[in-house]
Design brief:
Blueprint (H helix, E strand, L loop, with lengths): L3 E19 L2 E15 L3 E5 L13 H18 L8 H4 L7 H19 L3 H5 L5 E3 L1 E4 L5 H14 L3 E5 L6 H10 L4 E5 L9 H8 L5 E3 L7 H10 L4 E3 L6 H10 L4 E4 L7 H14 L3 E3 L6 H11 L32 E3 L12 H7 E8 L1
Bound molecules: N-succinyl methionine (SMG) and magnesium ion.
N-succinyl methionine binds next to loops.
Length: about 375
């Protein structure tokens, strides 16, 4: 049990090495909120997965900052002696706002673990110290440009290639990449861009032996995903639709997916992510760690999560160089065998480099003493 003395919020921005285009837009810069929590004995870091706009989710940096400043940080400062497991209760009067809550829950847990000298990976019950990594490739201008990018990432060692797709830029691209690489682990992610009227697209994709089709339909429509899963052979995976362990249990029960993408920030932090993992494990559903173009802070958190036993598929835990010229932490480097080391130090095992943090910060606020 420990008391939170202060919370420092920062808005940081880092240019991406190449634009990242999805079915809902193009990002050229990573802009996110970092929280640093000071407890009586330690400090901890949390990174928010929200973005500049409410496109991937209904939360965005502006809503997260407001939720933190107006409700969540004051609740934490008022809470007195607590442990990370108490925070769901501390934040219980605020509905939703999972990405905002995750930022504080992860930062608090990091501080708690640093205080007792335990790594996040060990706390979560990780069963390995390296994890297999995949890469998510944005929608490219042309098929040939995509093929070239795939070639480059495979040469770096990535163990699974995920292609972003949208209506009209799908089957032909997948066919081209599959023809180049008959045996790679290949998947697609539609970010909710299709409807059940597009079932023929997914039937056509069946021919290309994809590992999965991620979030093909509307983010709120689990029943329709179940209807689609009955009509295609390829495993469906849900991302946006899974906001909690309860969502995961419901989706699995309905037959809406056979694989789950776990993003700890999307589900309200690593503690809920562990519950999602457990629900899926008990149902025999494999999971993998999603990514939100995190800086080294969020990446360290993701790597610890990805080392849990039911994370049996390579995640979107790519090397820092795939995103940034100069990360906020020391860079995470992909080994030639396509794996990355899980941080072993106390907590998430990394901290921002002071000079980089200052250079990237555009807004800062300290709450508490
Ligand atoms: O972190 O490498 C990464 C990005 C992985 O494709 C990725 N994320 O829907 O899974 C997803 C997307 C959401 C990111 S939108 C900016
Ligand atoms: Mg996704």
């Amino acid at each position: 049990m420990t008391r939170v003395r202060a919370v420092e919020l920062r808005l940081v921005g880092l240019p991406l090495v190449r634009p990242f285009r999805t079915s809902f837009g193009t990002s050229t810069e990573k802009v996110c909120i970092l929280a640093r929590i000071e407890t009586e004995h330690a400090e901890g870091w949390g990174e928010c997965v929200a973005d500049l706009e409410p496109d991937f989710s209904s939360e965005w940096n502006g809503s997260v900052w407001a939720a933190l400043e107006d409700f969540l940080v004051p609740a934490l400062l008022r809470a007195g002696d607590v442990s990370a497991e108490d925070l769901d209760r501390v934040f219980g009067s605020v509905r939703g706002n999972r990405m905002a809550k995750a930022t504080l829950i992860d930062a608090f847990l990091d501080a708690e673990l640093r205080e007792r000298g335990e790594s996040l990976a060990s706390y979560l019950g990780a069963d390995r110290d390296r994890v297999a990594c995949g890469v998510s490739i944005g929608i490219a201008e042309t098929t040939d440009m995509l093929r070239e990018q795939v070639e480059g990432y495979l040469a770096e060692g990535y163990r699974r290639i995920k292609l972003k797709i949208e209506p009209g830029i799908d089957v032909e691209r997948v066919a081209a990449v599959r023809a180049d690489h008959p045996d790679i682990m290949l998947s697609v992610d539609a970010n909710a861009a299709y409807s059940l009227d597009d079932v023929d697209v997914f039937r056509a994709l069946d021919a290309h032996r994809l590992l999965m089709v991620e979030q093909p339909l509307h983010f709120e429509d689990v029943v329709q995903h179940a209807a689609l899963q009955r009509q295609v052979r390829t495993d469906l995976c849900l991302d946006e639709s899974i906001r909690s362990a309860a969502d995961a249990a419901g989706a699995i029960e309905l037959g809406a997916c056979r694989i789950v993408n776990i993003k700890q920030g999307r589900v309200g932090g690593v503690l809920e992510a562990r519950r999602v993992h457990d629900v899926c494990r008990d149902a025999g559903v494999p999971v993998w760690c999603g990514g939100m173009l995190e800086t080294g802070i969020g990446r360290a958190t993701n790597l610890a999560l990805a080392a849990m036993p039911n994370f049996t598929l390579p995640g979107d835990t790519s090397g820092s160089a795939r995103y940034f010229l100069d990360d906020i932490t020391e860079p995470f480097v992909l080994a030639p065998d396509g794996t990355m080391g899980v941080p072993q130090g106390p907590g998430i095992g990394v901290t921002p480099r002071e000079d980089r943090l200052e250079a990237c910060t555009s807004r800062r606020e300290v709450c508490g003493t």
